[in-house]
Amino acid sequence: MAIPLTRVGDGAFNHRPSLDAEAEYDRLRDLARAEAEKRNNCFERSKQAYERGNGAEAKELSNEGKAHAAKMAEYNQQASEYIFRENNATSRVPDDTIDLHGQFVEEAKDILERRIRYAQKHGQTHLHVIVGKGNHSENHVQKLKPRVEEVCRELGLQFATEENTGRIYVNLQGGEAVMPPPPTIPHQQQQQHHGGHASGGRPQQQHHQQQQQQDNEPEDLLSKVVRKIADCCVVM
Length: 236
Prior knowledge:
The chain contains six helices and four strands; from the N terminus they run H-H-E-H-E-H-E-E-H-H. The chain has 236 residues and is α+β, with helices and mostly antiparallel strands.
């Protein structure tokens, strides 16, 4: 009998999803669980038939159970791909980050291994892996994090838990996992931020320009989301 996948918890989305998105993810996982129950029932009945000496019935039930197992795997695969696209849209995570929310443990393992190989092939030096803090898991135990760490060890990569304990930093070059410091703000930009005259502009004029830019930010952000929402971080 196939071993069922370990469920991570109900915190599948890293953002507030639409009702349609949440319903679709739940629908696929529910269909997979229903097929798993049918599979188990068939295998149990097949065992009983075999013990009664009815080999033909046992074989028929076993084949029926395998068909349900295949459907279960198909629905889980659809759910895994769906939640990955939702959580890893380029409007939500940068190129050096992968979000594994909503994945079963073995699903997360396979996705991460492919993502690491893809990143290394394209010259990326590091990867931030979002695994969650386990707040939605049973007994608040992180299930993804130990599996991610195991994958890194198997691939000979060093890693470190970030300040946000739901994230892991992985060095893809094989060296020590030391996170780079945050970028510093150039002195000229600091002066502009504090109303200085680094670029020769008048403070009131700069403030007016900044205010106009801030007023346009929601509209610009919305435009970016509309343009990029369909672009997803597809793992090759």
